[in-house]
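WARN retry 2 of 3 for item q-0093 after timeout on previous attempt; input resubmitted unchanged.
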Amino acid sequence: MSEFRVTRTRLATVAGFYALGGMAVLIYVLQLQYTNSYAGFVPLDFSMFKVAIALFLGAAIGLTIPSNASRPLDMFIVIYAIFVLASFVFFRGVATDVGNGEYLFQVGLLSLPYVGALLLQRVRWSLEVPFALKPQLLLVVAISIVALAVVFAVAGVGDVGGLSIDDAYERRMVGREVFQAGSLLSYLVAMAMNGLNPFLAFWAGLRNRKWLFALPILFGLLFFYSLGVKAPTAMVVLSLVVGMLARRGRIGGVFMAIFFICAALFVVFLVEYIATGYSQVAEFFFRRVFVIPGFLVQYFMTFMFDSHGFFWSAWGGLNDSMPVTFVIGEVFLGNAQTNANTNAFVYALADGGYPAYIAVVVLVLAFFKILDALYESTESLGYLYIAFLYSLLIVEQAATTAALSSGVALLFGFVVLSGKEWARSPRAA
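OK item q-0093 returned
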């Protein structure tokens, strides 16, 4: 009977993974292909062999996704499968296409961190930290840092601020000028916006503190007002959901939670599309989450493997002083100011070649294994959340950027210093 339940759960996960890809592909065919043709979106090729490859890869991924993400490594596997591999599998050729052999080689490169994580699941060890601080003190510190960053962000852009979506890009450009990359203020704002503020929402969901959830929502809106960034606000909502799942002992069901969120948004798409012939949800969610990751990875792959050693070399990476994300923006998107972010592993490969790629794969997986070991000894849900957050961040950031600039290292310190306070049966704070 238990084997039957396991088989049924596996098949349900495969079906869910297929459904995510199917919903995104349908939306692409109906709308996104046409509304984004100016950016380089091309029609998908539904030839039988390519569809068969996509179905085979989708089944292989779906069968290996943990149905219950009960450990930090599981969390990485789920997030990476949904937000990196699905896009590359279901949206092959959306930007550029290659032969089947080269495509499978690229899939292999993209899958190495995933396969490595699956193998590391079999290794179990624990790690203890013998001291802890009161979580209330850490909460005050986190709120203070985010509040300070919000003040700097709002004051920095001055009269440019606003809540309109239409001029959000202009606010982002102003914010990029005000908070120069590498400056102390840019690090403060990035850590608060991408790391600490979603962490406050997770804390609110875990402890069922409604007043605490109001703060990250307010902070998120103020970041959008000043810097025009939408993703951090979405991260606040998603982090609250993860916190609520953790409080109910259902954090392991993050795959199904993401599936149901996507399914609900797909229904909204259908209503919008049937009523008006155009959907905002398609443009702001499905395009960003399921199409753009694979679209940009294809450009990165083309840049690396079609440059014939002129712009990129296998052992040295990029032959240019400009950051590789801006090189891709200039070469493929026609704008030298466009920062074409991709996942941490492809970024490492493009920037530093195979040595950097292997180093990042090893270091990132080692970090998740350390989270696993600490979770083994404490059952602290904070480690699961850090794995969730870091997995999402490295979907479109360099590993070091996500760890340092986005505040994951700081959050890691907070959770380590909290000891067992975040244990699976949390006490009221």
